[in-house]
Amino acid sequence: MRVGACIFNQNYTDWDRYEAEERGETVPARPQKSDREVFAEEINLARIADQTGFDAVWTIEHHFTPYTMVTNPLQYLTYIAGITERVDLGTMVTVLPWHNPVRVAEDVNMLDAFLGEGREVILGVGRGLGRREYAGLSIDQGEARGRYDESIQVLKQLLATGECTFHGEHYDIEGLRLRPQPDRDLSHNLWSAGGTPETVELIAKHDVRPLIIPTTSLEMALQTAQAYTSLRHQAGHGSSTHTKLALWTYVAETEEEARRGAEQYMVEYSDSAMRHYELLGDHFKNIKGYEAYAAGSEALAADASPFLRGFFNSHPWGTPEQTIARATELAEAFGTDEIMFIFKYGGMPIELAERSMRLFAKEVLPALHELQPAPMQVALA
């Protein structure tokens, strides 16, 4: 099984200042810890991943808040390509409604040309959830599903052949050919996150394999993956598929030390996600294609503690042995061919993240590389 490392670039300690500024209160113009300092720290995690045997470095896309500050993951990964030698590079995710899909295909093609033989670029895509982000980019969130559907179809053509003809509501393309000319089919490297039944149905129809990024509980994520497998089978694309799975981790020599770190920083991460996505708000019920989130927001407003403690309660942390056991269990349940681990999140100091990551690389990584999880299989009568 492949094992990746994901860099997030969170500035968690700036949330109170950011939200006060958003409310119109008088606050310092800049955070106590600069955003540039966060970038400098996390770039070193990519170097560690490259040096210690990880298979890939992944990153994510978000805008405007301290949640994560990678605004163009393919640009970021192009820089990472230049400071590493062996790791593949992946996005989890590029949010398609925020981009022209032709430009996304061009960026993937350019990065693939830079990497050359022996390294891959993996394009994980998604639909996006943040209201602030859609508003700041002047994109109607109600159009997200339609834009996403059309973008997937355009990308499948361009990544496979470098050529595209497509006529839709949002994109009208006739006889397009990419330059520099691609020299291989990259469509097998297209994966998609899916947090709603609508998105899961769409990617199953188009036979785009699932990228599992748990935003709620792992139990709900597993149900979503199983639903995808069934829908993909119904669409005529086969009865089994691998997934890629993102997990948060914290590894230490003793369970007590690991518990302290995991509990503090995983809860902080959950808090950052709840604040960025405004999960306590009631706006989802009024956005076409996002109604499924409305019920979740009502439950969170009543009691947010299950969400805040969800990552700590279910993701792999502990001693190396404990981390191997939990990661193995999840890899087999999700039928994954790669787990992308997040090592730095919340307000975790970089020293703790690097220590956890190096211990993981020494004691956990070799065992996970030996795993060969079977793909997720649809239940056939």
Automatic annotation (TrEMBL):
Gene Ontology MF terms: monooxygenase activity; oxidoreductase activity, acting on paired donors, with incorporation or reduction of molecular oxygen
InterPro entries: Bact_Lucif_Oxidored, Luciferase-like_dom, Luciferase-like_sf
Name of one Pfam family that matches: Bac_luciferase
Residues passing through the membrane, by range: none
Domain Luciferase-like: 32-335
Keyword annotations of the record: Monooxygenase, Oxidoreductase
GO cellular component: cytosol
Keyword Transferase on entry: no
Coiled coil (UniProt feature): none
Stored PANTHER family: BLR5498 PROTEIN, LUCIFERASE-LIKE MONOOXYGENASE
Protein name: Unannotated protein
Originating organism: freshwater metagenome
